[in-house]
Structures are given as structure tokens and as C-alpha cells.
Design brief:
single chain; 2 domains; 8 strands
Length: 298
């Protein structure tokens, strides 16, 4: 990477060479501005701070706030962009750049594929819905709710029928969320299910999956409880949030209110390891109560 100091020296050498020290009769850079830049710019070998690592709950650009402690308390309650201030009617540079960083992360989470190496590491086999590619996945949600015929055949070949608990992982609208959380969630979940004395089916990965694909899977494997991990739609706070949907004997007649949900599984919400144990405990309640969603009294 090229440091800001190197860039500045290069620009100054070009200006000097072209004899463009003055533009329109005004100095391009005043002596005072040069001194300020020398004081603010990093030393040789150093770089500007990574804005993507700044904690939004602490970051404020308001000059001399009337109640600093009150502002700090307010920001500590939410990751929303409060107190980022402005330059005239516009964002200041650093908050604007952070906004662009978070927007790019959200877009990447939606558009990229889950790393095949992670799927292999987790010991999952892969099947695909009726969706052919990412563009169709985003424009045809209905196709993401149905398994392809090839997927159905492979699931029946690989998975035992009628397990107590069946775990499914789907990419959903954030591949980043699956990559960030599944590795820690799955071992904690599997161990807890084992401790409850429940029989677990063979887990697998569904490419281009929507939440309701669990209904098709339920028709095929007839599990007592099906747990589906899926990437949540990303926002500007995080692109790493994963959800766990659970359902008692899902099938073609299942409606949305039949599903139980644990959301915001990520490092800034419910940590993945803790979520694994928590979701397993709810799966056990569903198994014992023979009900899920609004029918389950948790």
C-alpha cells in the first residue's frame, strides 16, 4: 500500500515540476495548511485508521456537545448512526466513508456464495433449490422455497428418515452470516441435542434456499423437529446476522406462524456458541410439546 505521505510527496513533486504552485493567482496550499497536514498525516510507514473497525456506539463527530454524558448514554443503547454530524447539508467525510464500507459489505453478503471449503469442513453435502443462479434467486423467491428433483433424490439417498431433529443450513440473503457463525453454532447445537438424548439426522447445505424450503424437506424426511440456519437480510449495522428457524413436523400445509425463530445470531448479538445451545433447548421444548410457533408455550 502507498502511504498518504508518499502520495503527498509525489503530488508536490509533480506540481513543482510543472510550475503549478499557483492556480488562478491563489496559492494551491497555504503555509498554514501545509503545517496542519504535516501534523495530521501519519509518519512514513504508517497508514490512516481503518474506519470499518470503529465502534458506531462510541463514534460521535458532534463538536462540543451540550451534554457529552447524555450523548454517550444514548449512543451506547443503539448501533444506529447518531451524532455523526455534518458539513453543511452533507455527511462529514469519515461517516460517509464508513457508510460506503457498510453498504459494500451488505451487497457482498447478498451476492457472494458460501465458501465451498467451509461446507466441506463442516461435513455437509450440498443440494440446490429450483433456482438456477443468484439473479434468479433474488427475483424469484418462490423458487427458493422448493427443492429441485435432483436435490430430493440426493437427500433421500444421504439422510435417514424420521429423525428426532434435522439440521439444515441455507445461504439465504447473507452468505457472510453463514460463514461467520455456522462453524461455532453447529458443534454446540449437536452436542446439546446429544445431551438431550435426541436422535439427530444427517445435516446438509441448501444452496439458494429460502426459509420455507424446510417444508419440502419435512415432506421428504419427516423429522419431528426441523431446524434451519439461514443468513438474514443484511443491513448497515451488520452483514453477519444469522437466524435459526424451527418447526414441528413441517410439511406442505405449514404456515409462517407455525415456525419458531431465534434471530440476530452474530458477534454483536447472540454469540454463535451460545445460540447453538439455546436453539437446541428450544428444539427440545418443541419435541416435548409437539408444537412450534404460536402453538408453543415457551
Amino acid at each position: 500500500m502507498i502511504s498518504e505521505k508518499d502520495i503527498r510527496e509525489l503530488v508536490e513533486s509533480v506540481i513543482k515540476e510543472l510550475n503549478l504552485k499557483e492556480i488562478g493567482g491563489n496559492p494551491a496550499v497555504s503555509t498554514a495548511e501545509e503545517a496542519k497536514c504535516d501534523a495530521d498525516c501519519p509518519d512514513e510507514g504508517e497508514f490512516l485508521p481503518d474506519l470499518g473497525t470503529r465502534d458506531l456506539s462510541e463514534w460521535s463527530e458532534i463538536p462540543n456537545p451540550l451534554d457529552p454524558e447524555g450523548l454517550a448514554r444514548l449512543k451506547s443503547t443503539t448501533p444506529a448512526r447518531i451524532g455523526i454530524w455534518r458539513a453543511g447539508t452533507r455527511f462529514k467525510v469519515d461517516p460517509w466513508l464508513r457508510f460506503k464500507i457498510d453498504l459494500a459489505a451488505a451487497k457482498d453478503a447478498v451476492l457472494k456464495e458460501v465458501d465451498p471449503g467451509l461446507i466441506e469442513e463442516l461435513g455437509l453435502f450440498t443440494v440446490q433449490t429450483m433456482v438456477k443462479d443468484k439473479d434468479e434467486y433474488l427475483t424469484r423467491p418462490d423458487l427458493g422455497r422448493k427443492l429441485s428433483e435432483e436435490a430430493k433424490e440426493k437427500i433421500l439417498q444421504e439422510c435417514p428418515k424420521s429423525p428426532d431433529v434435522q439440521l439444515v443450513v441455507a445461504d439465504g440473503l447473507s452468505s457472510t452470516a453463514i460463514e461467520a457463525n455456522a462453524r461455532d453454532f453447529i458443534p454446540a447445537f449437536e452436542q446439546a441435542i446429544k445431551n438431550y438424548g435426541l436422535k439427530m439426522g444427517k445435516p446438509f447445505f441448501v444452496k439458494y434456499g429460502r426459509v420455507a424450503v424446510m417444508d419440502d424437506i419435512g415432506e421428504l424426511l419427516e423429522p419431528t423437529v426441523l431446524v434451519e440456519l439461514i443468513g438474514e437480510r443484511p443491513g448497515l449495522v451488520t452483514a453477519k446476522s444469522m437466524s435459526a428457524y424451527m418447526c414441528y413436523k413441517p410439511n406442505k400445509d405449514t404456515i409462517e406462524s407455525d415456525r419458531t425463530l431465534v434471530s440476530n445470531i452474530h458477534d454483536g448479538g447472540l454469540p454463535a456458541v451460545e445460540a447453538g445451545a439455546h436453539v437446541a433447548s428450544i428444539a427440545k421444548k418443541i419435541y416435548d410439546a409437539k408444537a412450534s410457533g404460536l402453538k408453543l408455550n415457551v
